[in-house]
Design a protein that fits this description.
By secondary structure, the protein is α/β, with parallel strands linked by helices. It folds into two domains: 40-145 and 292-317, Rossmann fold (3-Layer(aba) Sandwich); 148-289, Response regulator (Rossmann fold, 3-Layer(aba) Sandwich), CATH 3.40.50. The protein is built from eleven helices and twelve strands. The structure holds alpha-L-arabinofuranose (AHR).
Length: 335
């Protein structure tokens, strides 16, 4: 597949223009900052688990600084309890807007209710939440980021098209993202939706690699070992992010196999490291997931403070990058 499957221009906002009940004024901070006062934003980041996350943090920090906003940034080191603590501290500090990227989907009910009671608007960046009861949309003003299910579908479609195996059996191993996180759940669901029409693609092993290189390597080592002991051949690795794929590439090489040839690899994110691996012939395709959400967050914060209506979903449009376009595309990559 030679062409890049660009779905549209970068970061095209829109979909549902669903306002919160009474949106504008209701989402406006309790006391809108005066013109001479800096807007204060509390951002509770997940951690620094991947090249993607580092680029996301950089995008948020640099965009906020360029807009002259006061950013209170917290790194939760991939622990939900730390993110909740950070959000509570933002509430106490009476920041103007709280933004966060939820490490897992569930367990946010109480803290979101506290933010709502304090009349501080909440913006979800990158990942969605699920509540144990009630409508999550009542607790955030907008959710900006990618469609993870679509990414899983794109990875599966690319693979079927690339392999051209008809009904021949294909053994797939899967490195899942953080257990309970929106991207891990949705990327698996999207993949399965496509593969239900291709039952010869069988996931023979699946485990979390927590979105990190180190875990990706460790889990791939155990996949290779157990597949060998069971006399199974691994044809494909589907990794929910590039970092885990890059870790797995090391494990495959250490096992004396050729990544990208003996085992076909498709992963998600489109970070520079993945492009380098594709150019080296070790990775076959990366599905794009853009971390560059900072500029959009700045716009949303400005609109919120101004009492404007905000779209409930701001969707990031992205492409698919097979290895044969990697060398041409690498110079254009921003993360
Ligand atoms: O939520 C986005 C995911 O989180 C990225 O795919 C992954 O690399 C990151 O850690």
């Amino acid at each position: 597949m030679k062409k890049i499957l660009k779905v549209g221009a970068l970061l095209v906002a829109t979909t549902l223009m669903v306002a919160l009940g009474g949106c504008g004024s209701k989402d406006k901070p309790a006391e809108a900052p005066k013109a001479d006062k800096k807007i204060v934003v509390g951002f509770a980041q997940i951690g620094a688990e991947s090249e993607w996350r580092t680029a996301n943090t950089e995008s948020i920090k640099s965009s906020m600084a360029a807009a002259g906003m006061d950013l209170k940034f917290s790194d939760a080191q991939q622990k939900q309890e730390n993110q909740i603590k950070a959000i509570r501290s933002f509430i106490q500090q009476k920041v103007d807007v709280i933004a966060f990227s939820p490490v897992v989907e569930t367990g946010w009910d109480a803290v979101l209710q506290e933010a709502k009671a304090a009349k501080i608007p909440v913006v979800l960046t990158d990942r969605a939440v699920k509540l144990s009861s009630g409508n999550p949309e009542d607790f955030y003003v907008t959710f900006m980021g990618s469609d993870f299910k679509e990414e899983g579908k794109r990875a599966a479609k690319w693979l079927v098209d690339f392999m051209k195996k008809g009904s021949e059996p294909v053994n797939v191993v899967e490195l899942q993202g953080t257990t309970g996180s929106a991207p891990a759940i949705d990327r698996k669901t999207g993949w399965e939706e496509v593969m239900k029409d291709h039952p010869n693609y069988k996931i023979i092993k699946s485990q979390t690699g927590d979105f990190t290189r180190a875990k990706g390597k460790e889990v791939m080592e155990s996949f290779l070992k157990s597949a060998k002991a069971e006399g199974q051949k691994i044809d494909v690795l589907y990794a929910h992010n590039d970092d885990m794929a890059i870790g797995a590439i090391q494990a495959i090489e250490e096992a004396g196999l050729k990544p990208g040839k003996d085992i076909i690899i498709v992963s998600i994110d489109g970070v520079k490291g993945a492009f380098e691996a594709m150019i080296a012939g070790k990775l076959n395709c990366s599905v794009e997931c853009s971390p560059l959400l900072g500029p959009q967050l700045v716009e949303v914060v400005k609109d919120l403070v101004a009492g404007k209506q905000i779209p409930k979903r701001i969707l990031t449009n992205e492409g698919v990058f097979p290895a044969d376009v990697a060398a041409k595309e690498l110079p254009n990559r921003k993360y």
